[in-house]
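> example.struct
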């Protein structure tokens, strides 16, 4: 599958660019607003021989694009660093926090972690060190305690994913489905409950073909219940939903639709590290109203840091289950273990 991005002043213009370049067989994988209007990520299936022919020709161009993207990200990062105030280690509560603990708290602050979370993590880290635990293990244990979700004894068979538009819900579903199949699941089901986003059906259909999953579509609670009944023999069912925005009517529509999930299903939030602290704060009441108690954090490869998102997770009482570290399906998904959190949180 060959992926490309196209922009246009509106969705229709962007779609025309897609069809002109990739033809009528193009699959729309994602859409998002951009500076010039709308950006669409599209793909076209290629046979093996065609991919081999294309790869040598595309290699130089791809390397050039990656270099340009890297330069742009560094420039943006430098600008943001100049705009944001330096963290103030002096703001840390001093009681029972000193030596290695205070040094760890200051390090976390420098990576964007808010003072309350940095203090709690550092205190548990300091306690572990005092009992003879190695520094790396003490940090991982503290991060897991304060952020990571405890794996349930039995994973929910039906799981719905909610979150802002563009945060990677559909890609996350495909990654989790792939992991389930690798873990021994024999039958996987998808339910598309997003009838608003351009290309949403095509993206999930493409993943269903690649993974051999059964696909259903639901526009209301009754249809969702019927779809889940048709998929009752699947080992795992993943429900994709419309993006959670500021439109109250759309939120109420989504709440009504999810009422068809049934009592044994779970709701998981998907948020991107690209969301600002204020955006996360605004979206939280909507995610909470939809029943989300755990979350997946995506696009770590596109963000300068995980600190602000981890602070939001801790503040809301959410439990972090998975980290999306790239766009590859399968792959680029890791459990939010202490080891993974330490790596991604302190990598910058």
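> example.seq
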């Amino acid at each position: 599958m060959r992926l490309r991005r196209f922009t246009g002043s509106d969705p229709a213009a962007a779609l025309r660019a897609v069809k002109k370049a990739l033809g009528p067989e193009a699959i729309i994988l994602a859409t998002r607003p951009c500076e010039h209007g709308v950006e669409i990520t599209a793909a076209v299936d290629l046979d093996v021989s065609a991919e081999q022919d294309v790869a040598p020709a595309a290699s130089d161009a791809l390397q050039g694009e990656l270099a340009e993207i890297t330069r742009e990200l560094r420039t943006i990062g430098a600008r943001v660093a100049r705009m944001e105030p330096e963290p103030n280690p002096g703001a840390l509560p001093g009681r029972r926090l000193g030596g290695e603990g205070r040094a760890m708290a200051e390090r976390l602050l420098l990576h964007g972690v808010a003072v309350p979370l940095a203090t709690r993590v550092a205190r548990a880290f300091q306690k572990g060190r005092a009992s003879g635990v190695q520094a790396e293990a003490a940090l991982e244990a503290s991060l897991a305690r304060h952020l990571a979700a405890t794996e349930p004894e039995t994973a929910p068979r039906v799981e719905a994913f909610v979150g802002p538009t563009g945060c990677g819900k559909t890609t996350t579903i495909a990654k989790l489905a792939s992991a389930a199949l690798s873990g021994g699941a024999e039958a996987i089901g998808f339910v598309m409950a997003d009838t608003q986003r351009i290309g949403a059906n095509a993206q999930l259909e493409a993943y269903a073909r690649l993974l051999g999953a059964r696909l259903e579509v639901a526009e209301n609670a009754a249809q969702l219940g019927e779809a889940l009944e048709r998929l009752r023999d699947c080992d795992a069912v993943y429900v994709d939903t419309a993006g959670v925005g500021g439109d109250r009517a759309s939120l109420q529509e989504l709440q009504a639709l999810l009422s068809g999930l049934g009592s044994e299903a779970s709701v998981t939030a998907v948020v991107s590290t690209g969301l600002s602290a204020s955006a996360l704060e605004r979206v939280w009441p909507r995610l909470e109203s939809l029943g989300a108690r755990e979350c997946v954090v995506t696009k770590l490869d596109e963000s300068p840091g995980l600190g602000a998102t981890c602070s939001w997770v801790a503040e809301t009482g959410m439990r972090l289950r998975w980290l999306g570290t790239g766009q590859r399906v399968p792959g680029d998904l890791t459990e939010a273990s202490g080891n993974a959190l330490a790596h991604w949180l302190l990598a910058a």
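> remarks
Confidence is low (pLDDT under 50) at residues 47-55, 78-89.
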